[in-house]
Automatic annotation (TrEMBL), chain A:
It comes from the Bacteria. The keyword Transferase applies. Gene3D superfamilies: Crotonobetainyl-coa:carnitine coa-transferase, domain 1, formyl-coa transferase, domain 3. Transmembrane segments: none annotated. GO terms for molecular function: CoA-transferase activity. This is Succinyl-CoA--D-citramalate CoA-transferase. PANTHER family: SUCCINATE--HYDROXYMETHYLGLUTARATE COA-TRANSFERASE. Keywords: Transferase.
TrEMBL record, chain B:
GO terms for molecular function: transferase activity. It holds the Pfam family CoA_transf_3. This is CoA transferase. Keywords: Transferase.
């Protein structure tokens, strides 16, 4: 069984972080009702010329497996309609700027009045409280505020922008938090308001470095290097822009690598006896390793290293990921269909469950308002006439 | 501080056997949300205890306390158990008897010998949620593959797509870059926490089950847009993926992030820059034209910013609705009024170091931050409890 079957989510989230959260929950079996409107079309219903997409997306990862209804939240009757959906839901999720739900009349208190044990999830850039709570932000700003950006980069270079992975790790964190709140509801009968701050998620990913700084240490960015392992990093492989990531975790692994490189004599080299000496002589070490990796096909070298017990993998491009048998066997890469039936690769929920083999994406991007017969008709029991009136009044719009 | 009654996972019992970050991070997440976590360690302690960097001691000298272990294990209890010995396996069974979740990152090939393979645990603990956390998962042709953070980030796709913006402009020929710290391993941990809580939700209907988490899968999941764009017909590359203008901007005293995606934000930026002639070019009113002329725009922005301080630009820009952020150092985050207001940090006691501020959790429940149960456990600190239960 899908573990979250029976859970219903009223999904007000926008952009990437919030929708990715409810997308994960939908793949795990929750029924997610995406509340949107022609007034403010979702980003994926609009062109994105920067990425060369001149029309709406034909497949949108984060909207897949969701139901779509139209509600114009600028109308009082739209708010009332939204509350009716919340009234039959377990979770209400939103990712507006703090204060927007309050102004709409959809605060936690207002939703609790409709459904006493509702779990409300709010995802925002800086959290629902504090002097910066009104800040708008995007993924690179979360990374900058949270220290992840500062601690990413070449040692002698600038900090680095953290992109969509930042939004999506916020979403995956939020999914775990909202599940915890559901367990709390099961145990206590009480709903709750879950407040996830994106910049705090960024900071939580470098919590060890923040702790080091709090104790008086000086954490800094260090490229692909590791505080104790060497060789460790991303090395040039054969071919244009081909790279091999590898990490040698012990002296025994180093001896193995020396043998694989055809240089067993390095094993007795005083510069490389143990991790500390290898770290101290990283420049010479990396030059030797690079001389070997440059002659190797990245995937073949990774397989050979793994067979010998050394952690390694080619630095993969997107087409390599999409075609990988391992990821496909795990359901991490799945095939979905475009509206015209053309197959394309998509990304599944990152887990396998022994009693839930059917988790994953089961439908593509819904059309705007595609599921109103089910939600308004079956679920809320609205008559055709009532729906028609609300459409004419641009409430269902 | 969250009231005990509001801590969501109060009563949840978690046993974790972790030598790596991902499994430990999963347990940490469940622990900060109220779960009681027991860390099973071999004699001498988990390898995480020996991971540098080490925290400076009270007198500034290097202590033996790993920053990583301290962060991951704060609030956990510890039991040293030799899983290779029958009596150790019996003690673990005692711990698992009362547990809801068991999280383990032992390589597949070593599990049976330790009595913690899927089949034995399923048979003996039918209500247990058994979470396996491995670099490439427990199933599939690469299930036996090893992978540190750098390996799983590059196996998951985002590694190859970084850096972008200023860093790749400066160093176009260098190796692609991983995100700092343990980002890739932590993604596996976050997915594992979600997997554990999802499986637990279904437990009343179907009993315990086996949750198979792969750090590679988790990295791929958070990088899903690259696969989406592949389907749209474009293959991303770290050089072309950069925002055409804005991004990481060097200032007189540090770096800021600038990202204007909407017209009103661009209009605000023009105001912030003081309405210079170049920015008032009517052609730049069009967003596609701005993208085309991104490098030229950035030359102007960088020249302007180089003589100004980050905070001055950010303060003025925020008033004009321009999305801007300082690239904050850890020290700046620790004293930031926003993080202080939110209660993001809590002092914990670390042996040989003293009281240190530790990040608790990025979640608030019912308008209150969570709390850590304490600092990192001394080795075997929960021995009596574990023995009593065993």
């Amino acid at each position: 069984m899908k573990p979250l079957s029976g859970i219903r989510i009223a999904d007000f989230t926008v952009h990437n972080a919030g929708p990715f959260c409810t997308h994960l929950l939908s793949q795990l079996g929750a029924e997610v009702i995406k509340i949107e409107s022609a007034m403010r079309p979702d980003a994926f219903r609009k062109p994105h010329p920067v990425y060369g997409r001149m029309g709406p997306a034909t497949f949108d990862q984060v909207a897949s497996t969701k139901l779509s209804v139209r509600i114009n939240l600028k109308k009082a009757e739209g708010i009332a309609l939204a509350k009716r959906i919340v009234g039959v839901s377990d979770i209400a999720a939103e990712s507006f700027r703090p204060g927007v739900m309050d102004r709409l009349g959809l605060s936690y208190g207002a939703l609790k009045a409709v459904k006493d044990d509702i779990v409300m999830l709010s995802v925002s850039s800086s959290g629902q409280s504090g002097p910066d709570s009104h800040f708008a932000g995007y993924a690179p700003l979360f990374g900058a505020w949270g220290g992840l950006g500062e601690l990413t980069g070449y040692e002698d270079g600038p900090p680095v922008e953290i992109r969509h992975v930042m939004d999506h790790t916020v979403g995956m964190n939020a999914a775990a938090a909202v599940m915890a709140a559901l367990h709390h509801r099961r145990a206590s009968g009480q709903g709750s308001h879950v407040d996830v701050a994106a910049r705090e998620v960024a900071a939580s990913l470098v919590g060890d470095m923040l702790l080091l700084a709090a104790a008086g240490g000086s954490p800094r960015r260090m490229g692909n290097a590791h505080a104790s392992m060497a060789p460790h990093g991303v090395y040039p492989a054969r071919g244009e822009d081909r790279w091999l990531a590898l990490a040698v975790g012990s002296d025994a692994e180093w001896a193995t690598l020396a043998r694989l490189m055809g240089k067993p004599e390095l094993n007795g080299d005083a510069r490389f006896t143990d991790a500390a000496s290898r770290r101290a002589n990283t420049e010479a070490l990396d030059a030797i390793v690079s001389d070997w990796t440059r002659t190797q096909e990245a995937n073949e070298a990774a397989a050979a290293l793994q067979s010998a017990g050394i952690g390694a993998h080619a630095s993969w491009t997107t087409p390599e990921l999409a075609a990988d048998p391992h990821l496909k066997e795990r359901g991490a890469i799945i095939e979905v269909a475009e509206p015209d039936g053309t197959p394309r690769a998509a990304v599944g929920v990152p887990m396998r469950l022994s009693k839930g083999p059917e988790i994953g994406i089961h439908s593509g991007t819904p059309k705007l308002g595609e599921h109103e017969d089910f939600v308004y008709g079956e679920l809320l029991g609205m008559s055709e006439a009532e729906r028609k009136r609300l459409e004419d009044a641009e409430v269902i719009y | 501080m969250t009231r005990e009654a509001d801590v969501p996972l109060t009563g949840l019992k978690v046993v974790v056997h972790a030598s790596g970050v991902a499994a430990a991070y999963a347990a940490r997440m469940l622990g900060t949300m109220g779960g009681q976590v027991l860390l099973i360690e071999p004699a001498g302690g988990t390898a995480l205890r020996r991971q540098p960097p080490f925290l400076p001691g009270a007198k500034g000298e290097e202590s033996e306390e790993s920053a990583l272990f301290t962060y991951l294990a704060a609030g956990m209890e510890s039991a040293v158990i030799d899983l290779a010995a029958p009596e150790g396996q019996a003690r673990l069974a005692g711990c698992l008897n009362g547990a809801d979740v068991f999280i383990d990152d032992t390589p597949i090939s070593a599990r049976e010998r330790l009595g913690i393979d899927k089949a034995s645990l399923t048979e003996r603990f039918p209500n247990l949620v058994h979470v396996s956390v491995l670099p490439f998962g427990a199933h599939g042709p690469k299930a036996s593959w090893k992978g540190e953070d750098v390996v799983v980030q590059h196996a998951g796709g985002e590694g190859n797509l970084l850096p972008n913006g200023l860093a790749v402009e400066m160093f176009p020929d260098r190796a692609p870059l991983k995100i700092g710290g343990h980002f890739g391993e932590m993604q596996g941990g976050i997915a594992a926490a979600l997997g554990a809580l999802s499986a637990l939700w279904a437990r009343p209907e179907c009993g315990g089950q086996y949750v198979d988490i792969s750090c590679q899968d988790a990295n791929l999941a958070v990088g899903a847009f690259a696969i989406q764009r592949l389907g749209d017909g474009s293959i991303e590359h770290r050089v072309e993926r950069s925002f055409r203008y804005g991004g990481v901007i060097p200032c007189a005293d540090g770096y800021l992030e600038m990202l204007t995606l909407e017209q009103r934000q661009w209009d605000g930026l023009v105001e912030l820059l003081g309405r210079p002639d170049w920015a008032l070019d009517p052609a730049l009113a069009d967003s596609l034209e701005r993208s085309r002329r991104g490098p030229e725009i950035n030359r102007h922005i960088r020249e302007w910013a180089s003589a100004r301080k980050v905070d001055d630009i950010v303060d003025a820009g925020q008033k004009l609705g321009v999305p801007l952020a300082r690239y904050k150092t850890p020290a700046e985050i620790l004293r930031d009024p926003q993080e202080r207001h939110r209660g993001l940090f809590q002092p914990i006691n670390v042996d040989g170091v003293g009281l240190v501020d530790a990040l608790v959790s990025p979640f608030h429940f019912n308008e209150a931050p969570l709390t850590l149960r304490g600092g990192p456990p001394a080795l075997n600190a929960a021995q009596e409890t574990a023995a009593a239960e065993g």
